[in-house]
Request: fold
Amino acid sequence: MRQASSVPPTILVLATAFGAWLTWLAYQGGGVIAAVWTAILTGLAAILLAAAVKVANQWERAVVLRLGRFQALRGPGLFVIVPIVDSVPYWIDLRVIASAFKAEKTLTKDTVPVDVDAVVFWQIHDAERAALEITDYRSAISRVAQTSLREMVGSSLLSTLLSDRKRGDELLREEIGRKTADWGVTAISVEIRDIGVPAALQDAMSREAQAQREAAARIHLGQAEQQVAEKFVEAAEIYARSPTALQLRAMNIIYETTKERGATILMPTAMVDAMNPGGVLGLVQAAAPTGKP
Reply:
């Protein structure tokens, strides 16, 4: 609601006080009849003056009609109209306005009922058209936004709505802007605040996501096993081409094992012979901890 300006009442009070002073002077000079006529005339003048003076705020424009026909837009600031002949039926707010709207139990393209809450930020860019082309532009914008939201939800899959909200916001802004452009209104932006999904469907979606993550984990584990097997094959080929490398690897394994105190190693005789026992025993003695004789 528009807040009333304090200027016209102030003018009425000042004009009434001035008229009372003139009435007193007329009574002193011409008697009661002169005072009565003076009071009537000054009273009418004060009322007409208060009705003629208007004030529009910085963000407002006043639509002035003269005998029912559009005359002009006035404001911001102080302006004067012709009483009785002119009227100001609308005060247009040019600031950005936010209007919330929703679509309840609306079916998506894959027949899933959802509740969607959104907000549209809009602004009047043509005050004359907003006043003359539509009866109540605020209510009309809310209806258009709600209808556009239902159309968008009905033509989209649930997965698309949940994963690509920015795209949905842009589609809504374009659709609402297209429908309201003829009214002098610009849709600046639309934001989908929440998409409500039935509880049973939420549980099913949670299980599906968990199954997908488990499947992805198993795939990664299989790929890791495959890479390890490939590396083992490459190592086996290298050891097959170089027996010395295999002996050094075996000796390194024995060394790493005997670094701990009290370690006991049991090895087949054939394996010991294949690894050059003299070198292996020397390595074991060097790695074993020294103790008292």
